[in-house]
Each structure stands twice: as C-alpha cells, then as structure tokens.
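#struct-pred

JT: dropping the chains for the assembly here, can someone run the whole complex?
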Amino acid sequence: MEQVLRRKQKGNLARAFYRFKKNPLSLVGLSIILVMILIAILAPFIAPYPGDSAGAVHFKQMFQPPSWKHPFGTDEVGRDVLSRVIFGSRISLMLGVVVLFVAVGVGLPLGLFAGYLGGKVESVIMRITDIFLAIPPLVLALAVTAVLERNLYNSMFAIAFTWWPWYTRLAYGETLSKKEEDFVEVSESLGASRTYIMFREILPNMTSSLLVKITLDMGYAILVGAALGFLGLGAQPPTPEWGTLVSLGRIHLPKMWWLSTFAGLAIFITVLGFNLLGDGLRDFFDVEVE
Amino acid sequence: MYMVLVLFGVSLLIFFLARVMPGDPARLALGPEATQEQVASLRHKLGLDRPLYTQYYVFLRGLFKGELGMSLITKRDVFKDLIQRLPATLELVMTAMLIAILGGIPLGVLSALHKDRTIDQISRIFAFAGVSFPRFWIGIMFQIAFAYILGLLPITGRISGDPPTRITGLYLLDSLIARDFPAFVDSFKHLLLPSLTLSLSPLAQITRITRANMIEQLRKDYSIVMRTIGMPEVVNIYKYMLKNAFTSTLTVIGLLTGWMIGNAFVIEQVFSWPGMARYGVNSVLRNDFNAVVGVTLVIAVGYVVINLIVDLLYGYLDPRIRLKR
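RK: done, full complex below.
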C-alpha cells in the first residue's frame, strides 16, 4: 500500500514537473528570481564600489556616462550607479517579502475564520474587507503614508495595510468550497477541534492557490513599493531604493539618461520574473487565481 | 443600499486613519520649528482638540453640505480644489481606458483566433511586459523617446497656450465645443503620452482575459454550429462570441479602473498633469490633512460607483443574471 502511494506521489511530481518544463517562460522567470536573490545576498561582494550604496561623495567623477569602469555611469555626487542598483535589489526583495508576510499573516486567518465559522464572524470580517477593497490599493497606501514618517519601513506597513483583504478573500472562497468536502466532514465526526480543521485540514489544501497568488503579488508589491519611493513617500535618499533612484535621476533628463534607466530596468526585470514564474505555477498547479 | 454602507465604512476608515495614527497633523503641518502654542492653536482651529466622535460628526455633517474641510495649502475648501482638478484626471483615465479597451479586445480576439501561433506569442510577451513595467519608468522612457529625441510630442503639461473656455473641464471636449481646433490638436498631443503610459498594463490584462474567454467561446457548441451553417466569420465573432466573452472582461474593466485611478497618482507626477491625483500626492507630501482625506474619499466614491455601473452592465449583457433578480 505504502509503496503504491509513494509511486503515485512520484508520478504526480514527475507530471507536474513535466507541465512546468513545458512552459519555458516560467523557467526564465525562475532563473530571473534566483539570480536576483543571489545578487541581493552577495551585494557587498559583487558590487564594484560597495561604499557607494550609501551616502558616499566623489565630486571628481559626477555624471559620468556608462563606461567600463562604471557600466551604469555615475550619479550627481559621483557614486557608481551599478553598485547602487545592486544594493537596491535587497530593498525591493525585502519589501516584497515583508509586505506579503504581513498580508498573508493577517488576511489568511481572517478568511479561514470567516469561511469556516460563518455567522456573525463572517459578516463582520467580510464587510470590513469590502470597505478596504473599496479604495484602490495605491490610493489607500498613499493615505496611510500621509500620517506616518516617511521611510522604507512605514511604506512597507502602508502597503501591507492595503494588501491583507485580498488574502482574506482568497482564503474565504477556498474555505467555503473546501468545508463541504468529505475530508472535513470526516474530521468533524471524529471530533477534531475547529482550529485543527481550519489550520490542519483546510489550510494545507489551499497551498497551491496561495503560492501562485504570493508569487504574482511579490511582483505587484515591489511595483507599488517602487511607486511610493518614486513619489518620495517611501525610502528616502541616500537609500538606493529603485523607485527613489528613478525619481532622483529624472531631474537630470534627458542628458543623464543612465540615472533613471537602469534602476527602472531592474524593477522591470524583477517584476517580470515573478509574473512569469507565477503564471507558470498557475499552469503547474492548475488553479484559478484572480 | 449596501453601497451606502460600504461608503459609510470607507468614510469611517479614512477618517480614523487620519486621526488615530500616530503623528499630529498640526505638528506635521507647522514643522518642527513651531512652538507648542502655535501647534495648540492650530489644533484648536482644526477642531483636533475635540473628542473623536465629535470630530467625525462634524466631518460627516460637512460631507452632506459638500464640504471637506479647508486645505492647509490652498486655504480653500478641499471640495472646491477637487472639483477644479477632477476633469483633468477624468480625461486622462477615460482616454487611457478607451485605449486599453479598443486595443485590448481586438488583440485578444486576434490571439484567440491564432492560438499558439506567432501573433499569440507576441501578444503574450507584450502582456507580460505590460504588467511588469513600472509605470513611472515607462512614462519617463516615452518622454525620452518621443519628446526629447524625436521631438514629436510635448514632455509635460496639458496644453501649451491658454486652456479653452471651461465648460466640462475636459480640454478635448471644451475645445471642440469652442471650435478651437488648434487647441484640440494641442491638448490631444499632450494627452497622448500620459494616457498611453497609463493604458499599457490594463491593455495587456484586457487582451489576456479576452483571449481566454474567446477561446472558451470558440469551443462552445453554438459557435461550431454557426460556423457549419456558414455564418460569416465576422458576424459570428463580433456579434455572438464577443458579446458572451465580454461579460467577464467587464468585471476586470471595473477593477482596472480602480487600478488606473491609483496609478494616475504616479503618471500625473511624471507628466506634471494638473489633476486630482497630483493634488493628492502634493497634499501627502506637504501633510495637508483634510486634502488627503478628501482625495481618498472622492476616489473611493468614484470607484464604488464604477463598480456599480459594471454590475448593472453585467446584468444587461447577461440575461441569466438579470432575470435571477
């Protein structure tokens, strides 16, 4: 019996991997993300001028166009743009991870409670969710940053504040459909506690939808974070946040085009990676996620 | 009715967000140099020293009178400021949505008809790129390419000379009404880059969803029957299949409008577009409290109304939903 089961699992995995491989774009996405994570981890070692990631000043070499010495050029105080963009990867990836950690951590249990417990709990949670969803995310995030000091951590908080309702919705929908299934009924008749059923029976069954949504949302969260940085409401200079870099470079257009171009390109490639991977995972798990 | 409840909730959320969060609006507005007395006097003037429920009551009463409180920057009522800037944002968002729909639907149909062939692959790549571009960055790239290098289009602003006489506040419409064609062409040129930038991601998403829905329709019995009885392909596609495919596209369009309004904040900044969103960003940057609350509230109302319209249209297009009620 055990052997048969194991063989079946192996078969499932092999088939899933085959489906994943069939979509070459998702492999591209995965490689982009892996490379970005490596860059972020190894930033101090691969950046040509690690000191330039913060407030260093070299007035002798301001505004140098891209060259072998400075492949992405230098900025208004002579810092190496490539080094700054490399260090920026740490900020954007961290922002995505923190935002989603909070959003999932808050939104998911609420959705489970609403879906499984029903009644008053359900109506209160879902009505609050509706209120949050009635304001476009970026607008709500802006309103939140308005009352906080402007820095990277508060912008993460602001984005997470707008993001959790999406996970409440996802978990709510999944819970509603899963709670009718036999395995839940069996658990209930065996006397399992509600907490056990919600977190040990229902939750594991929505992992694939969650994973797809989280992957896609990493990209979106990074975009929103960069937009806040660009508007001057997120990370503040000299933090080498990508959105902030684009915004600072904009003042010197069109002559110093390299200042904005490369930082924006970095955002684009990272977000593209998450989108490609998310799309591949969606086919892989065969789930529908809005 | 439910909508009214949601809006009431939204007003509560925004209001308490603005008041309960750490940070003192009066202190923020005056800056760190202000004395304790100055802060206290501004707090009193703004009514911030009163209990929260009284403040909320005053705020809500003002809403019914069309007042959103005084802006600390313009020293006028925020509602008046918004009314003045709303048309610019509307013009931008509507044009962008028009581009997204007029481009996205035919592209989606085309991809569906040529599934997995070259056109479909190109549109897929375009779709991935479209949703992954940081909007502010692609706007800047457009400015470099079309304005600086090619010199075809203006870099920023809404119009070069004086705006046409204000009737609707939409420059395109106003200049047409005034029969001022140079102004029409000029404002159109100004509008082109920002609205194109704003439309890219929605265009990509509409293309994808239309493609998916059309593929589903193509497999249905009725469309096979239509084809076998020799119904012209154009009629078949645009009259029957697209109408069915469009219903689910429509829900996305509602969501995308909200997305566009949010991203207008960024686009208006890039193109110095004198709209409501830019006003909102500046209010946030300069800690103009009432203005932030006002902008957020007006946008929430607009968004809820748009989603209601989408729901109604949905019923109109899909009799199953209409008749169920």
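JT: nice. The CA atoms of residues 134 and 201 of chain B lie 10 Å apart. Chain B touches chain A through 54 residues (CB under 8 Å).
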